[in-house]
Design a protein that fits this description.
single chain, alpha/beta, Rossmann fold, 7 helices, about 45% helix
Length: about 250
């Protein structure tokens, strides 16, 4: 048996996903999902393979496309898969004043990537996860959600709805997969990395003041929570806030 457990991370090659990959690489072989091939993905994979030969591989797929998801699962293969981290997501503002056809299509697009893709891939990968649980006594899924799964972010309604549905997905899959030794949990970050885009829903100072700790977090904070849930063998169906105590403020 391979001495290193296998982990698949979606949206693995930039920002928070890349930090999760860096922390997991210490004790996992990695399947790094990216939407498409790019220089950052290749550089990260080369870094991992230099540190430990054949320890990382890129898998490209558009998660909003059902056949592409099926191909991604086929590329992962049937060998035991110890951990899946669903990090990839669609994040953009909503336009509630758009035409009905446009705003409904917008909601469907958020649900397809942020909810249906997780559902679909988790079911595709269930046999490989169950094989890992049988071989090693445990397997885990960790879904990266958002604090806005609990309360809507004004201007980002479709995104918030898709994240709220993700919380129920975690509970449902935890119940469905539990007897096979597969645990399903989520991390709900607050702001841990400032957006590259020009359009921002809130200011950094406003967000920091809204936390108990008085600061925003970092990608490393999310990655540490993922590592905890990956190894917490009696934790399933839980959503762990990583928000600096923002959820404790009224």
């Amino acid at each position: 048996m391979n001495p290193f457990p296998r982990a698949l991370i979606t949206g693995a090659t930039r920002r928070v996903g890349a930090e999760i990959a860096r922390q997991l690489h210490a004790d996992h072989d990695l399947l790094l999902h990216a939407r498409h091939a790019h220089a950052d993905a290749e550089a990260l994979t080369a870094q991992f393979n230099t540190a430990r030969a054949r320890s990382a591989r890129i898998l490209c797929a558009e998660l909003g496309d059902e056949p592409a998801r099926a191909q991604l699962a086929a590329d992962v293969g049937p060998a035991p898969l110890d951990l899946v981290v669903f990090n990839a997501s669609r994040y953009a503002p909503s336009d509630l004043a758009a035409t009905p056809a446009l705003r409904n299509a917008e909601l469907r697009a958020f649900l397809e990537v942020n909810l249906v893709a997780t559902w679909d891939l988790a079911l595709h990968l269930r046999p490989a996860l169950a094989a890992a649980a049988h071989a090693r006594g445990d397997a885990a899924i960790v879904v990266i959600l958002d604090v806005y799964a609990q309360r809507p972010l004004p201007g980002y309604e479709a995104y918030s709805i898709s994240r709220a549905a993700g919380g129920m997905l975690v509970q449902a899959l935890a119940r469905a997969f539990g007897r096979e030794g597969i645990r399903v949990n989520a991390v709900a970050p607050g702001t841990v990395l400032w957006s590259d885009g020009a359009q921002r829903a809130e200011t950094e100072a406003t967000l920091a003041r809204g936390t108990a700790l008085g600061r925003i977090g970092s990608p490393a904070d999310v990655a540490q929570a993922v590592r905890y849930l990956a190894g917490a063998r009696y934790v399933t169906g839980s959503v762990l806030p990583v928000d600096g105590g923002r959820s404790t403020r009224i």
